[in-house]
Flagellin N-terminal domain-containing protein
Amino acid sequence: MRIATSQIYTASLKNLNKSLSNVMTLNMMTTTQKKLNAPSDDPSGAALSMQLRSYSGTLSMYEENCGLSANYLATAGSALQQGSEILTNVSELAEQASTETYTAEQLESMGIELRQNMDSLFQISNTKLGENYLFAGNDIENSAYEKTLGVTIDDPALTHADVVSVDGEAPYTVQIQMLESGTVGGADDLDYQYSTDGGETWQTATLAAGDTQIVAGDASITLATGTAVVAEDGTGSGTNLYIRPAYEYVGASENLSVAIGENSTLEITSVGSTVFGGTDPATGQPYAEPNLFEIMGDMVAYMETGNHAGVASCIETFTDGYEQLLQRDANIGTRQNTADNTKTAISFTNDRTISQVSFVEDADATQLSVELAQAEAIYETILRTTNSVFQLNLTNYL
């Protein structure tokens, strides 16, 4: 077979370019320390790398959510630990105030201290991490609780459903006693008296026929039309109402949850009403017992009016509320452990995934050095051979 000179030149250039391309590819790998610099380098490897990187990104998101969850829950747990210390002090005050060994003046001082404890618990109920409220359910941008007024009812025939609203201001407990029996909003006037200084002095007033608002200084109670009231005869068997501090839950009814796995979520906030109680703004009624804020409000009312028996009647419910807070704290601790353990597991899996990405993309420096040296040697050999071929002409054979 006859080989033309043009074929020799073409083959020589082809081999030269192929060898040079190989050297340039290996030089690129040496520079980047990557064996996969473009999809064309290894299409199947590039596809696998994209899948692994996508999976790693998902794992990183879950890992970040676990870290965020742990921070939220740790902060909330720390706040409830402080709340527990406050409630321990409240329990001691209640036990003391329930005995008749203390004077009305001493009970008044206890009431002032209890107000301070309530305010501290109110601050805890509005605990924030950054700008987010931890006890407001999934409404984390707004506070969980707001201060308001509530009423303590000392009349077995009445419930909070009979109270339409409590309005005004009352820096100290306002006690109201009905002096006449009858029906609120009925055809007859009803006389009553109220005290703003713990029962030391009293002022009388009249609830006019057809009216439902009992005004007591700067505060007032509006009762439902048709509510039956009983005259107080001095034995405590009549209708006694106490206007005292209260806290209204204005957060959401569902917790905020984040994804910590493909089919797993974790609640990172708490619905404050299930921890601290308070009143429901939608109905104006207290949440179900045990209700810490409400029972503490009742105790304030009884302490500031020198009512030992009233304080004693609150202790059992308060204890239940205290235990409820401890249970919520334990639940938060369990969720925090879940976040920490899940983060550890995800971090391990993500590290292995990143290692797989490295195996697919990264070059072996030692092997690459050997391959580059071989490629350069081959290129130099082909270059010398090609140079010799290109110098051939007819005179070489004459």
Observations:
- Helices lie at 5-32, 43-97, 104-125, 292-304, 308-312, 315-361, 365-390.
- The chain is about 50% helix and 15% strand.
- The longest helix spans residues 43-97.
- The radius of gyration is 40 Å.
